[in-house]
Design goal:
With 553 residues, the protein is α/β, with parallel strands linked by helices. Among the domains are: 210 residues, ANL, N-terminal domain (Rossmann fold, 3-Layer(aba) Sandwich), CATH 3.40.50.12780; 113 residues, ANL, C-terminal domain (GMP Synthetase, Chain A, domain 3, 2-Layer Sandwich). The protein is built from 18 helices and 26 strands. β25, α16 and β26 form a beta-alpha-beta unit. α2 crosses α3 and α7 packs across α8.
Length: 553
């Protein structure tokens, strides 16, 4: 029997240990184990007074920070079930998740979300706001929490007790509520801890939303388990400043963060051919050293030039970063090799909310960026006859909330989780080849998972975002976000990146747009995955014109 909240309770033996750092009222402030436990205890006193009982659901629609941590630890400690929701999600989706989960309490960041929910929700649970606007009619957190409370409690619960219902931000259709138990999450945390990648003296920078299990397990529960400090980034727009001032040693991120960083580096280098040549020389030598293929010339280059070339780049990341783990979307290996060549290990991992979420990750030794690494020591994996990756282990979910049909499709009778991803396993490493449902079948019968092809095309910086189109069509087309407008040049540049692919994998038309795909315009999920169906719907007329023109070629 164990409770996730016992991770915090264990630190009360050293109450002055700094666990968190947050920007509050104009300055950075450290928060000790004693302070966060006392705040969580106040939350527990409030939850008890509200009559909430084990199994009742509490929804958190908050930005990352100590409010999230305290409310989460308080609820878990009492055996309540936490329903994390994205603070920047649209009100309709939040309202649907609240109704579906049957949450009895919603903790929102501001009155703005609560007011928006009033217009779309048939009924709402009790709503508390961290920042309640005067006259809004919503209770502020500080106004209702008692000033004093008994000691923080982490009541023992069965491993199979439900801890959270985490709604997947699906790229199509309504999200499904993934049921994860205390045992599921703690098994994943323990396996990640046994990797010995992170250490107690590390400083994590928390950037991805805590409503996603990647950040929640890797950037919250794992550092809490080992006693490492977590600093909460203020925002994506202030990330450069936060990296410089807080100097983290570990970071969990989606590939997009490092892709943008690499793009800025390449733009700066384009201004100086000499610097660009030195940079490429160091990156190539560093890559060969990573693969244990470095010769004498490489070792000389690294000894003389790496600090000079890599120093300014690494300083922009704070200068102390030991490694970064990237997940949530495919990583272009070229981006990984760039940072590896500079001496910063970028480790690609793989997981699903349904697996709490980590299934595999590359290690510092034997890092193969083209793969998503080897599975955790308590996770089994295999590839089914149709190429789908299956996973099994103690971190795999209980099922989907109130959705037995979907549960039966994802979890078979032998407890294998059907990931929906195409994969190969070579020398123990997993190589993801795309989504099973995204495989394109051209009208001539040729099939291709678009992921690797899209990654290759996006390796040309002229393409900021893009997806391939071709299901049931005679040829492939590309819908892309780009600042360029000449279609012929875009087609040439896309196909220049596809020379290593079979001849039928060539782009014959490009539908270009300058407007980025974002969460706000509904074309990305909150975890920055492209909603392929939405993109195709938005550009349906342009796609049809492109295929009509292509038929006349």
């Amino acid at each position: 029997m164990a409770n996730i909240a016992s991770l915090l309770g264990a630190h009360l033996a050293t109450p002055e240990r700094i666990l968190y750092r947050q920007f509050t009222e104009g300055s950075w402030r450290d928060i000790s184990a004693r302070e966060i436990a006392a705040y969580a205890a106040r939350w527990q006193a409030f939850l008890r007074a509200e009559g909430l009982a084990p199994g009742d659901r509490v929804a958190l629609c908050l930005k990352n920070g100590i409010h999230w941590v305290a409310a989460d630890q308080a609820a878990l400690g009492l055996g309540l079930v936490v329903v994390p929701l994205y603070a920047d999600d649209n009100p309709e989706n939040v309202a649907w998740c609240l109704e579906n989960s049957g949450a009895r309490l919603l903790v929102a960041e501001t009155s703005r979300m609560a007011d928006a929910l009033r217009g779309v929700a048939a009924s709402l649970p009790r709503v508390l706001c961290v920042a309640a606007d005067p006259g809004s009619g919503h209770d502020g957190v500080e106004a209702v929490l008692p000033r004093q409370a008994p000691t923080f409690e982490a009541a023992p619960v069965e491993d199979g007790a439900l801890a959270t219902i985490c709604y997947t931000s699906g790229t199509a259709g309504r999200p499904k509520g993934v049921m994860l138990t205390h045992g599921n999450i703690l098994a994943n945390v323990s396996a990640c801890e046994r990797l010995r990648l992170a250490q107690s003296d590390d400083v994590f920078l928390s950037l991805l939303p805590l409503s996603h299990m990647f950040e929640r397990t890797g950037g919250y529960y794992l550092p809490l388990a080992i006693g490492a400090k977590v600093t909460y980034a203020r925002s994506i727009s202030q990330l450069a400043e936060d990296l410089a001032s807080e100097r983290p040693t570990v970071m969990f991120a989606v590939p997009r963060v490092f892709e943008k960083f690499a793009a800025r580096v390449n733009e700066a280098l384009a201004q100086s051919p000499a610097k660009k040549r030195l940079f490429e020389l160091v990156v190539a030598a560093g890559g060969r050293a990573q693969r244990r293929e470095a010769g004498l010339a490489d070792r000389i280059v690294l000894a003389l030039l790496r600090d000079r070339v890599a120093g300014p780049v690494r300083s922009r990341l704070g200068g102390r970063m030991r490694f970064a783990i990237l997940g949530g979307a495919p990583l272009d290996p070229a981006i990984a090799w760039l940072f590896l060549g500079l001496g910063l290990p970028v480790l690609q991992g793989y997981g699903m909310t349904e697996a709490s979420p980590v299934i595999s990750v590359n290690r510092l030794e034997g890092n193969v960026p083209e793969s998503v690494g080897m599975p955790l020591d308590n996770v089994e994996v295999r590839v089914a006859a149709d190429g789908e990756l299956l996973a099994r282990g103690p971190s795999v979910m209980k099922g989907y909330w109130n959705n037995p049909e979907a549960s039966a499709k994802s979890l078979d009778r032998e407890d294998w989780l059907h990931t929906g991803d195409l994969a190969e396993i070579r020398e123990g490493r997993i190589f993801i080849r795309g989504r099973l449902k995204d495989v394109l079948v051209l009208s001539n019968g040729e099939k291709l998972p678009p992921q690797d092809v899209e990654l290759a095309i996006l390796g040309d910086g002229v393409f900021e975002q893009g997806i391939l189109i071709g299901e049931g069509r005679p040829f492939l087309a590309l819908v892309a976000v780009t600042r360029e407008t000449g279609e012929k040049d875009l087609i040439r540049r896309a196909n220049d990146r596809l020379k290593e692919f079979p001849r039928y994998i060539r782009v014959r038309r490009v539908v270009a747009t300058r407007e980025p795909w974002t969460v706000e315009n509904g074309l990305l999920t909150p975890t920055l995955k492209v909603k392929r169906d939405r993109v195709q719907q938005k550009f349906d007329a342009e796609i049809e014109r492109a295929y009509a023109a292509g038929a006349l070629d």
